[in-house]
């Protein structure tokens, strides 16, 4: 009998930055595809050198650099207090929710009021939303000025399958890790095409712009106010998360590798109609698994993210390629067990 086990299922019908000038805002807007009019089009017309310098300036403001630098050379990281945790997650049937590009409403508690913005440093969209990349949402609040993977537009796809075997042993970021993940995820569109994501031949033992805890994290809070991952997702208790290098396939053919893959088992963060909620909308007693292949890749040498759309093999209704995968699995069987060995020493 595992130390932690549960089954959850869900059925649903289909249904910037002012502080460094306008140039910085326009530069950040260019990072997302497909580009929106206005800010994003202006950004694409900027001098490439000026755009690169503007983005680098915002990335330099990221607050985690000192912590990450202190861990990147550690060759003997300590283990988890109490010993390693083994995790098993499986979905054998049912659909999945596939996010499409959409503007994201900004939680005023997380992002702050217009004149006192928070969470604006780092690579735009990945770790911050600069104020000039924010615009009125027509309801008295703010939203992103560009499409993101975190909007309310989605499509339901069939035959969702997920199999994960993972081990969380290393406590912190380091140059090496004992963490491991073996994941296979797949789903099918209405035409019968099968999309899949596989991970991880190599774990992200050391983070870029935020910690990765050796590649696997268990029992923590992420996103939102935490600074761990994008604040565009709500603050959510995360029972299990990973970051590692994997591949993206379609109908058995590899389209893109290596890609940074991120997955996490969290509290439920969707509202009625499958709209992505704010922190106040989180449902603590319900779970969902998020799979993300972002349109960015880590630049380990410089400690930042760079734009690189994912070759998903999926075409959007407007004829453009879907540049990321953000897929949610909800018909889950979850089990975990802690083994009291290799624990961190006090």
Structure description:
It is a single chain. This protein starts with a strand and ends in an 8-residue tail after the last strand. The chain has five helices and 17 strands. Strand 5 and strand 6 (142-144) form a beta hairpin. It has helices at residues 22-29, 39-44, 48-60, 65-71, 108-111; strands at 4-8, 85-91, 96-99, 105-106, 134-136, 142-144, 154-168, 180-188, 194-203, 216-222, 236-250, 253-268, 283-293, 296-299, 304-307, 325-329, 332-338. The longest helix is centred in the N-terminal third of the chain and has 13 residues, at 48-60. The strands form three sheets. An eight-stranded antiparallel beta barrel has the order 3-7-8-9-11-12-13-16. Helix 1 crosses helix 3 (48-60). The chain has 346 residues and is mostly beta strands. It is 11% helix and 37% strand. It is globular. It has one domain.
How would you summarize what this structure contains?
With 346 residues, the protein is mainly β. It is built from five helices and 17 strands.
């Amino acid at each position: 009998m595992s130390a932690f086990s549960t089954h959850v299922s869900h059925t649903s019908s289909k249904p910037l930055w002012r502080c460094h000038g306008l140039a910085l805002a326009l530069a950040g807007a260019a990072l997302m595809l497909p580009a929106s009019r206005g800010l994003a089009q202006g950004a694409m017309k900027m001098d490439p050198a000026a755009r690169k310098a503007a983005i680098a300036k915002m990335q330099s403001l990221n607050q985690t650099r000192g912590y990450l630098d202190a861990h990147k050379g550690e060759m003997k990281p300590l283990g988890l207090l109490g010993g390693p945790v083994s995790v098993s997650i499986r979905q054998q049937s049912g659909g999945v929710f596939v996010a499409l590009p959409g503007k994201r409403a900004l939680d005023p508690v997380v992002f702050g009021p217009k004149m006192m913005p928070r969470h604006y440093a780092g690579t735009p969209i990945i770790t911050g939303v600069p104020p000039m990349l924010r615009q009125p949402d027509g309801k008295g609040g703010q939203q992103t000025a560009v499409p993101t993977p975190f909007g309310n537009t989605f499509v339901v796809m069939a035959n969702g399958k997920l199999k994960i075997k993972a081990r969380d042993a290393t406590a912190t970021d380091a140059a090496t890790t004992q963490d491991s993940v073996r994941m296979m995820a797949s789903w099918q569109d209405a035409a019968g095409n099968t999309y899949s994501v596989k991970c991880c031949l190599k774990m992200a033992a050391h983070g870029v712009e935020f910690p990765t805890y050796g590649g696997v994290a268990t029992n923590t809070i992420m996103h939102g106010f935490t600074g761990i991952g994008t604040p565009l997702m709500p603050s959510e208790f995360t029972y299990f998360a990973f970051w590692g290098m994997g591949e993206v396939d379609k109908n058995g053919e590899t389209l893109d590798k290596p890609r940074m893959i991120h997955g996490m088992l969290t509290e439920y963060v969707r509202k009625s109609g499958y709209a992505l909620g704010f922190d106040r909308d989180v449902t603590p007693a319900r779970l969902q698994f998020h799979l993300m292949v972002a349109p960015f890749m880590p630049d380990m040498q410089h400690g930042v993210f760079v734009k690189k759309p994912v070759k998903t093999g999926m075409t959007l209704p407007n004829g453009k390629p879907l540049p990321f995968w953000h897929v949610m699995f909800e018909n889950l069987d979850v089990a975990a067990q802690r083994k009291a060995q290799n624990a961190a020493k006090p």
